[in-house]
Design brief:
By secondary structure, the protein is an alpha/beta fold. Helices cover 48% and strands 12% of the residues. Strands 1-2-3-4-7 form a five-stranded mixed β-sheet. It starts with a helix and ends in a 13-residue tail after the last helix.
Length: 290
């Protein structure tokens, strides 16, 4: 099953195709800003039993270099079968569209990034018929954006920075800068950034920080995921309040009681338990007759 972070790592380039030219600066190449971009079908299947799909496929046009294709692949871990698939994608797309094809692999950990950027030759050593050299964006070369002004200057790049650094210790500073920058952004611009960042952080610890920041800093946004994030943030905060009240009153809080409180996502039920926590003689009695 495809994870949310996998989807965010490549779909963010569909949301803002010009992001590739801005990212290329950090990859050691200079790709002009496209004057036109088209999202193309991702199905590369031929009339054979094997189905092949690239994650995101864009047709970019630049004033300086004309048109080219950009295939974006989100890679969560090393996969020895992938280089052959990537070589197939590049060759097939070149054949089908008769356009130069670039491959960008987006990673979230250093080991996968090092593996992905290794050139791979399809021929024997003395006959390198086809050599695949992907561009790789990951924690090793994406910027660590900690200044809200820098994040405000390019919100999509700041979101990608948070996504690619999701497993790094530096990641916590990026969501803080991004949430501050989003306070002044129009809702239609901020909503996709909130969602890409939430999805891209996946199940990593930084997701809790992002959800709390959205709940507090971006409380005026109304998108589905923003509302879900805020509800989760409120629930987590209220659960912490209940435990704090019980502990301050000197009541013994068993593991079962603690788990029941922290696992609850119903704001109204948590509010009721918080009221009971003020007067209940035992921690177990905050649940009443439920």
């Amino acid at each position: 099953m495809v994870s949310s972070s996998h989807e965010a790592m490549h779909r963010i380039f569909q949301h803002d195709p010009g992001l590739f030219s801005r990212v290329s600066h950090f990859l050691g190449v200079d790709v002009p800003t496209p004057v036109k971009a088209t999202v193309l079908p991702t199905d590369l299947t031929e009339n054979s039993p094997v189905e092949r799909r690239v994650d995101t496929l864009l047709r970019l046009e630049t004033a300086e270099q004309g048109a080219f294709l950009l295939a974006v692949e989100a890679q969560g871990k090393k996969d020895p079968d992938k280089p052959a698939s990537w070589a197939y994608y590049a060759a097939y797309l070149w054949t089908k569209y008769r356009l130069p094809t670039a491959l960008l692999v987006v990673c979230q950990d250093h080991a996968t990034a090092r593996w992905a950027q290794q050139p791979v030759c399809s021929g024997p050593p003395q006959l390198p018929t086809l050599t695949l050299t992907p561009l790789v964006a990951g924690p090793h070369n994406m910027p660590v954006i900690t200044d809200p002004e820098e994040a405000r200057a390019d919100l999509v790049l700041a979101s990608l920075a948070a996504i690619t650094h999701a497993a790094d210790t530096v990641v916590n500073e990026i969501p803080k800068a991004l949430s501050t920058a989003l306070r002044d952004a129009p809702e239609d611009i901020a909503d996709p950034i909130v969602e890409f960042t939430a999805q891209g952080l996946g199940n990593r610890p930084a997701k809790h920080l992002w959800r709390n920041l959205v709940a507090v800093d971006l409380s005026f946004y109304k998108s589905y995921i923003s509302e879900e994030i805020r509800d989760e943030g409120r629930a987590e905060g209220r659960a912490e309040d209940i435990l704090l009240v019980l502990e301050q009153r000197g009541l013994d809080v068993s593991d079962d009681v603690r788990s029941r409180i922290t696992d609850c996502t119903d704001p109204e039920l948590l509010r009721l338990w918080l009221m009971h926590a003020v007067t209940a003689p035992k921690a177990e009695e905050i649940f009443g007759d439920q």
